[in-house]
Amino acid sequence: MTATRIEKIETFQIPPRWLLVRVTTADGAAGWGECIVPKRVRAVTGAVADLADNVVGRDARHIEDLWQRMYRGGFFRGGPILATASAGIEQALWDLKARAVGLPVHDFLGGAVRERIRAYAWVGGDAPADVVEHARERVEQGFTAVKMNATATADHLDRRAVVDDVLGRVGALRDAFGADLDIALDFHGRVPRTVAKILLRELEPFRLLWVEEPITPDTDDALRHVVPPGSSVPIATGERLTSRWQVKELLAAGVVDILQPDVSLTGLFELEKIARMAEPYDVAVAPHCPNGPVSLAASLQVGFCCPNVVIQEQSGGIHYHQGYAGLPAADLFDYLRDPDPLRTPDGYFRHGTAPGLGIDVDDDAVQAAVAQWRLPDPDWRHDDGRYAEW
Fold first, then answer.
1. Which residues of 359-378 are buried (b: 16+ CB within 10 A; e: fewer)?
2. Any idea what the CATH number is for the domain that residue 90 is in?
3. Helix axes 268-278, 63-72, angle to 10 degrees
4. Is residue 131 situated within a structural domain?
5. Residues 6+ apart with CB under 8 A from 3
6. I need a surface site. Which of 148, 157, 278, 298 has the fewest CB within 10 A?
7. Domain of 14?
8. Are residues 134 and 216 in the same domain?
9. pLDDT score at 325
10. pTM, whole model, 2 decimals?
């Protein structure tokens, strides 16, 4: 058997809500990946185990073949659980392959096209509050772009209250920072069509970086009816999509300005393919990543080699990582031997030449932190008791 034969695939459930994957080969080499969908963590770990049954014993260097096997081999395919399980394994395979020859992954994908990638940070939380104070902290950290949720729950007839509330928050940020701070607004698919139509019109004077998921991906075909004709507000979406087959419909419809695929749903190579596919449509890519350090490192490898990647989300200090839903707190650098590759002292990630994904996961720290946490559903409801979009 070859030394690059896959020997073992393990998952590590660690705080604050991360699921790391380690793939080990017969020669003892290891690579790391990261899965998401934390509210279904047992389903994801089970899916990783199921997929591992089909790839353990095979040559770790044949990444595309293994991805095809994971994607097509079960007859029933698609969905976020299988997608994130295969993405975590696939990231680890790229980490292994590139480390074996001492190169960063992006050197396998055409090489670097830039020296740095702009980063943005979150403010405000799920029910946005204190956004000006939080944004000031982000500016002091070096960021020139922030994103916040537009609102908490929103109902179909909440037009006046929700619209005034959102405009007030965005206006407060503009008053405090002028044009020096770029502001992205995430509707999170939770804003009903009746409210989204008004908001997209009323928000135009604020010159937002983008409006994200103005409606749920289930109704993306209605975007053309929600976005006002001639609107200059850039529309971003795609974080819940898992493959080129889903993205091509958005591109063909011409309803998206900025794609936001998540490397821990698509996988690393698929993210690169999606970015290349978006380029001839003049669509930018801003990879989604409110996740852990391995997911971020994998996403950056694509960003360094794709010219239409314009900005990268990162999760440092995000509300989800600070004891969210009663879980233990942890942050972006807690499981790395050296955090510098993921630092953004001036609001930018710097191009690096370290092998693999460009980071070194601290195996001992991961092992010591393993905990069987459970992240509950938020159970958001309207005032009358109906379940609300989260």
1. bbbbeeebeebeeebebeee
2. 3.30.390.10
3. 90
4. yes
5. 25, 26, 27
6. 157
7. 6-102
8. yes
9. 66
10. 0.95
